[in-house]
Amino acid sequence: MFERLRGIFGRRESPTAEEKSVLRLDPEERAKIGTDQDPLHGYEAAMERHEAAIRATEHGDTEAAIQLYEKSVAENFVGSHPYEALASLYERRRKPAEALRVTESYIALARSGTLPRGAQRSADRKLPSFVARAERYRRAASVE
């Protein structure tokens, strides 16, 4: 906002949206864009996979949904949705050890510090609920 006001009153042109987004990235993050190390590499394909998994679940094909979500977990997808959905599917199938594995994968990813800034903030907010879920799955797995 201050940049905009400075642009108005200081007769300085405001940076474009692209310039603003680039300015917010540190050099390490900027260098990873478009490479295999880019944490958002394959993001669109993963989102299509998640939509297909949601449709499969709605049509009762949980096995297909599990396979689709497992691929995202294996690729360390940056969002929490596939981890939550997959853990829930395993929980409904009474497989707490599998639900625990998936939940712990997200916890490890969230604590790794490798996520993009926005995804990291989201992960930090969700981390306590994932830790609580993991504990619940641990207790359920030990009862088996």
Strand % is under 5%
DSSP helix fraction: over 70%
Largest sheet composition: none
Stated plainly, the CATH topology of the largest domain is called: Serine Threonine Protein Phosphatase 5, Tetratricopeptide repeat
Oligomerization state: single chain
Counting structural domains, the number is 2
CATH H level, superfamily name of the largest domain: Tetratricopeptide repeat domain
The average pLDDT score comes to 83
Unreliable spans are none
Through-space gap between termini = 56 Å
CATH architecture of the largest domain: Alpha Horseshoe
Provide the structure class. Answer: mainly alpha
Summed up, the helix count is 8
Shape type: globular
Number of strands: 0
Order of helices and strands: HHHHHHHH
The top-level CATH class of the largest domain is: Mainly Alpha
Rg, Å, rounded = 20 Å
Topology:
Layout: H1 2-9, H2 17-23, H3 27-32, H4 43-58, H5 62-74, H6 81-92, H7 96-112, H8 117-143
Put the structure in a nutshell.
74% of the residues lie in helices and 0% in strands. By secondary structure, the protein is mainly α. Helix 7 runs antiparallel to helix 8.
Q: How would you explain this protein's 3D organization?
A:
This protein has two domains: 1-33, no CATH class; 38-143, Tetratricopeptide repeat domain (Serine Threonine Protein Phosphatase 5, Tetratricopeptide repeat), CATH 1.25.40.10. The chain is 74% helix and 0% strand. It is built from eight helices and no strands. α4 (43-58) runs antiparallel to α5 (62-74) and α7 (96-112) packs antiparallel against α8 (117-143). The longest helix has 27 residues, at 117-143. The radius of gyration is 20 Å and the shape is globular. The chain starts with a helix and ends with a helix.
